[in-house]
Amino acid sequence: MTDVLLRGRLLSFNDEPLAGEESTGVFTYIEDGGLLIRDGRIVAMDDFAVLQAGDGRNVEVKDHRPHLILPGFIDTHIHFPQMQVVGSYAGALMEWLSKYTFVEEQKFSDQGHPERIASAFFDELIRHGTTTAAAYCSVHKASVKAFFAESHRRNLRMVAGKVMMDRNAPPGLLDTPQSGYDDSKALIAEWHGKGRQLYAITPRFAPTSTPEQLQMTGTLVQEHPDLHVQTHLCENTAEIAFVAELFPWSRDYTNVYEHYGLLGQKTLLGHCIHLTDAEIGAIANAGSVAVFCPTSNLFIGSGLFDLARLRTSNPPVRNAIATDIGGGTSYSMLRTLDEGYKILNIQGQRYHPLRSFYQVTLGNARALSLEGVIGSFTPGAEADCVVLDARATPAMRIRMETVETLVEELFLMQTMGDDRSIAEVYVAGRAAKSALAN
Ligand SMILES: [Zn+2]
């Protein structure tokens, strides 16, 4: 395969820029940069002129000047079966689930439906510059097969799993402790580690699993300690009260997951809004990840994620950011950063644009324990990239006339940008957005 050399303004992080632009040595920015890709991986990031001189091999140059090139965006919490739930007019979480989401997810037992949605889903992720996601499939095995088959065909690095749920949902969406375990085992054997696919053990959340199911989920985790675990936690106060009723012995909601051995370093906990100090301590000590889903939290009216509180605990809670489609309202990590900024700002927490772009790249890669694999331009990393155009719309073009620094440009992109700002996407070194059928 011919080498590919991307030319543009390169930005890649190697640590969190906690001090904003005062942070030194935590990111690399090259004005006329070259990113050399061979067999789907990063070989080098340097001045274009240096890499152009090359070593005599055939190189195909793709010139993206004056655009910015970053590692592909990573979405750490998204529901694949909820493409047709986005923008449902519901009240809080429980009504949203029962009236729309559970109805929609039942369609994933229909012939051909999961395949059709999978194709649309990955088109949409690519369109928005997202090259990796941690996704919930439906309870049906077929939904996971459709998801991974399509992801594998496109050579995307994806994390996903079959939702396990055996109570408090319509009969068409229920498995049993045994079938949830057996189906997960079969899917792990078939898909985990196949190409770029990673399996996540996925109990939906405590309200929809019996103690027996959570027990068997804990067994799955013990048998596959290298797998991700994803679930929801403390999104909404009615949900928390319901968990207290269902698990009266439990100290709190987090303790339910803790009790069944589901809190570990690869555990992703969606939302984490209404936590007690004891819960924050338990999550921090386990090294689990709190996943901030701003557009979803605003849309469903769940509450305000308190990043500063999580990060100032000792030890700090690891954190990530995500769309949470279909409670979330946009596939765009740029829109997600914009709403996240507002949620933090209204609580008096400034969030620097450099931290934002760190978070959707290396930060989320770290949250998924995939540092060095995705999320940066480190040599050897998989060559997933996003090409960003800060002048994608007339309004952005006129605003860019007054922008003088990289930080200002990034902030403009997260405030005004969306899929139109994604000029191109590379998946393992291959152009993916321009290859979409539209
Ligand atoms: Zn969710």
Task: Kindly report how far apart the N and C termini lie.
Answer: 27 Å
DSSP summary: helix tally: 15
- Tally of DSSP β-strands: 16
Small molecules bound in the structure, each named once: zinc ion
Radius of gyration: 21 Å
Approximately what portion of the residues adopt beta-strand conformation?
15-25%
Mean pLDDT: 96
Largest sheet: number of strands, sense, barrel closure: 9 strands, parallel
Segments where pLDDT lies below 50 for 5+ residues?
none
* Morphology: globular
Explained architecture:
With 438 residues, the protein is α/β, with parallel strands linked by helices. 36% of the residues lie in helices and 23% in strands. The chain contains 15 helices and 16 strands. The strands form two sheets. Strands 5, 6, 7, 8, 9, 10, 11, 12 and 13 form a nine-stranded parallel β-sheet that branches. It has a seven-stranded mixed β-sheet with strand order 3-2-1-4-14-15-16. The longest helix has 15 residues. The chain is globular, with a radius of gyration of 21 Å. The two termini are 27 Å apart. The mean pLDDT is 96. The structure holds zinc ion.
